[in-house]
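Look over this today:
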Amino acid sequence: MPHLFSKLYDRKSWPHWVDSDGDCQNTRHELLNATSQSPVSFKDHRRCIVLGGSWFDVYTGIRFTQASDLDVDHVVPLSYAHSHGAAEWTKDQKRAFANDPGNLLVVDDSTNRAKSDMGPHEWMPPRRKYWCEYINKWMAIKDKYVLTYDTLESEVLSQLEFQCIN
């Protein structure tokens, strides 16, 4: 069951898309650059903003070539983490979570927006072939950050995990 939290969720309190290594590329553009299956093109000579490349969206199975068609999804959404144990985290803990590459996927922007802040008991990727990997990523992130599970979430994850091993 979600924690009763004293603070309401505020996305601004979760610093995301930071430039942690000072090279002018924020987390989004670092991930776009790292996951493109072809050399990326940039907005200008500074090489800060990725414009194009070749990305395979594991949620839909569609290949994309324009970075503007993509979002970087938090597998475990920030607001979901907030309501499952992270409400009292420090700003540094929230920054680490929000920029953790293990919790980030480059996906179709409209699919990411449809997912919103839902858990796997409310939303699963449209591409069923990715379901097992998705729930494994979900549980790994929740366990890494010691986030709580609600009853329905646990039941659905158990059912899906059983299907994945059989």
